[in-house]
Amino acid sequence: MSSPSFTRIGTATQYDSAIRNISARQTSLSNLQENLTSGKRVVRASDDPVAAAQAERAMTRIARIQTEQRALDVQRNAVAQAESSLGDAIGLVQQMRELVVSAGNGGHSASDRKTIATQLQSLRDQLLEVSNRKDTNGVPLLAALGSDATPFLNAQMGFHGLPGQGAGSAVSIPNTLDGDAAFMFQPQRDGAYNARLSLATPAGRALGTDSVRTTDPAQLTGDKYTLSFTAVAPTVPADGTTTATYTITNDTTGALPTTVTAVFPSDKPADITVTGVPGLSFSIKGTPASGDSITLEPSTSIFNVIDDAIRDIGGAGDSNAAAQAVGQALANMDRGMERLQSVRGYAGELLNRADRITGDQDKRAIQLEADRSRAEDLDMIQGISDFQNQQVGYQAALQSYAMVQKLSLFNFIS
Questions:
Q1: Angle at Cα 89 formed by Cα 88 and Cα 94, nearest 5°?
Q2: How far does Cα 59 stand from its chain's mean position?
Q3: pLDDT value at position 409?
Q4: At what angle do helices 380-406 and 11-38 cross, to 10 degrees?
Q5: Is residue 413 part of a domain?
Q6: Which residues, including other chains, have CB under 8 Å from residue 230's CB and lie 6 or more apart?
């Protein structure tokens, strides 16, 4: 029978072991308390390197979203200001259109028409100011792809910048609109022409044209043309018609003129369609006379249309000339309104796009915040339970150490 073995543990060793265990429990309790107060399971990267990396990546993406959203807010404000400016421009053009309509009143005198022209000039100056508005950073709202500080210096010089609409991205929109597309005309796109009469014998004669129409946009070049009537005489035998010969001259290129002969009914009103002008067509109302001429000049912008209206209405010597100016101005102002409304509609779509981007970014931010929370946040219920368990164990360790510390051989030696 083997004898029992005994292991002797020194009192100092026992004390050291108890202190180490108490210190470990105290450290664990302190860490749990830190987790509870911070609300995080991962306070330092050493606590869980993988979770810490996931949380850091999520926070970086959230910060980038916040930066992109701040930039988007600036862009949204700029586009909203541009859209508002286009709305003001449309309102001004509408006011001018109403004045132009009133200028066609046959009861107006030459002085009345000059007064209307003065009003048009005032509204035109306001329109120019609207077209050059800037955002809070001093950038023109209608700068297109880049422009001078004043994109529309005057109607003759046109748009001072690079035409085109800037592109956005998945998280941004352009902060400027294409002012060239809003206020300027293009021959093949708009076909805006002004037909101006120069009558050899205007007294008592009513001669005019309707608005110039586009028949083939591909043929339009934006050149200036002049129609000159050289021979106008009744047909033989007299049958109530008049034969008129006119030449069409390209004033821009200086090409050889084209001669056209047309027959005008002289006993009743009729419209004679003018052909021979590449890509354009219009009708003459009334019977021309030798020496009459019609100038077809392209309108380069809504400002150019208004300037022509101011000139022709203010300088109209009679109601026939005023009616001609009014008819031409209204047709081209309507084209200008279409351009302004088109760009304004695009601005509205940009604002809707900005709202969609904001909604998508908010959803992404919520998802990333959830990823970060899963990686590093503490389950408070579990954390409180662990803390309480650790606290009970720590108290038990302290009490047991105090009891063991009182044990000594000298206490039993009498």
A1: 100
A2: 31
A3: 62
A4: 160
A5: no
A6: 245, 246, 247, 290
Pairing state between β 193-198 and 293-298? antiparallel
Closest CA to 46 of 26, 62, 31, 60: 31
Alpha carbon of residue 50 to chain centroid: 44
pLDDT tens track for 272-306: 788 778 888 888 888 788 888 899 999 999 999 99
- Together in a domain, 97 and 221: no
Q: Which domain holds residue 236?
A: 191-298
Q: Are 279 and 213 in contact (CB under 8 A)?
A: no
Contact 271, 261 (CB under 8 A): no
**CA 88, 90, 93 angle in degrees (round to 5)?**
110
| Domain co-membership, 219 together with 331 | no
Tell me which DSSP letter residue 38 carries: H
Query: How far is it, in rounded angstroms, from Cα 143 to Cα 240?
Result: 58
End-to-end CA distance of the chain: give it in Å, rounded.
37
Residue 385 falls inside a structural domain: no
State the residue for tokens 């604002």.
Answer: 351
Phi–psi pair at 274, nearest 5 degrees: -90, 125
Residue at 391 is within a domain: no
**Are 215 and 281 contacting, i.e. CB atoms less than 8 angstroms apart?**
yes
Say whether the peptide bond before residue 217 is cis (omega within 30 degrees of 0): no
Q: Which amino acid is at 350?
A: L
Residue owning tokens 């219920």:
381
Rounded average pLDDT over 373-390: 80
The answer to whether position 163 is within a domain reads: yes
Site of tokens 């005032």: 122
Q: For residue 51, is it left (φ>0), alpha (ψ between -120 and 50) or beta?
A: alpha
Lowest mean pLDDT among 76-85, 356-365, 395-404: 395-404
How far apart, in whole angstroms, are the C-alpha atoms of residue 219 and residue 226?
17
Q: What is the DSSP letter of 255?
A: P
In angstroms, the CA 69 to CA 72 distance is 5
How many domains does one find in the chain? 2
Whole-number Å distance between alpha carbons of 99 and 221? 31
How many Å separate Cα 398 from the centre of its chain? 72
Looking at the DSSP bridge assignments, the partners of residue 248 are 227, 258
Q: Name the domain boundary from 259, 275, 298.
A: 298
Hey, what amino acid is at 172? S
Query: Within this chain, do residues 161 and 100 fall inside the same structural domain, yes or no?
Result: yes
